[in-house]
Amino acid sequence: MAARYDEQAIEKCFRLYLRFNGQQHQRIEQEMRKVYPGWQRSYLYTRGTGKNLKIGWIEKFGWEKALELHLATKPTAALNNAQKLVREVEEVREKLFTKIKTEGAAQVGKDVLYLHRDYSKLSIEALTKVEAARDTLGGFVSYYERFLDWVTDIDQRLAQGILKVEDLIIARAEQEFGESEETLKWQRDVETKTDAANSANAAAEPGA
Questions:
Q1: Of the listed ranges 21-25, 48-52, 132-136, 140-144, the one predicted with least confidence
Q2: d(CA 104, CA 123)
Q3: What residues are paired with 54 via a beta bridge?
Q4: pLDDT above 50 for 50
Q5: Which terminus of the chain, N or C, has less C-beta within 10 A?
Q6: Distance CA 107, CA 201 (A)
């Protein structure tokens, strides 16, 4: 008969599921077994058919939807948005430059020249913010998880040694990169500027 687990066990597993971005189920199992020795990763999955059907925790508790929201609000998601913003700003700036170069500065008018100036400044600012965003807790955790995947493939004993002190590493990272209100404000600014870049894109088309 399958073991029964209380809400505390389910909540711990859910936090691990989010922590590992819905992946690395073996690591989830390792962490769960520190508290619940008989826990198996198979509990995550829906399995069997008919009378033998057992709904996995991921499906039963709707964790996939929660994961989507979690990934969308991570600092690394803001970094991706910032990188997207840089591409959009650069695209508009390049179109403005092409228009000025093709038609001549004297012919395009002050509005286009001023717009190109503003987008040049915005491009520099966006690039600066992207570089700053890399130095965050979310950025560190993202690279740390990738690094640990590599180590696991190369030397499992070394990976197990790192996992033993993982909580200390993450705690140290939280102290070093603690998210601030300034970071949250910048995330909102990224969204606003992305919308502005999209609106200005049409005005920057050659011949517009």
A1: 132-136
A2: 22
A3: 47
A4: yes
A5: N
A6: 20
Q: Which are the contacts of 130, defined by CB distance < 8 A and separation ≥ 6?
A: 79, 82, 83, 86
Task: Quote the CA–CA distance of 121 and 127 in Å, as a whole number.
Answer: 10
Burial of 16 (0-12, 13-18, 19+ CB in 10 A): middle
Instruction: Please state the pTM of the whole predicted model.
Output: 0.44
Q: At what angle do helices 7-19 and 63-73 cross, to 10 degrees?
A: 40
Scan for tokens 């955790």, then name that residue.
141
CA dihedral sign, ordered 127, 131, 134, 136: negative
Q: Is 151 exposed, middle or buried (0-12, 13-18, 19+ CB in 10 A)?
A: middle
DSSP letter for each residue of 125-155: HHHHHHHHHHSSHHHHHHHHHHHHHHHHHH-
What are 62-85's pLDDT values in tens digits?
A: 999 888 877 766 655 555 666 777
Does residue 200 contact residue 93 with C-beta atoms inside 8 Å?
A: no
- Written as one letter, the residue type at 131 is E
Residue 102: how many CB atoms within 10 A of its CB? 11
Contact in structure between 81 and 191 (CB atoms under 8 Å): yes
pLDDT digits (tens, 9 = 90+) for 134-165: 666 666 776 777 788 788 778 878 888 888 88
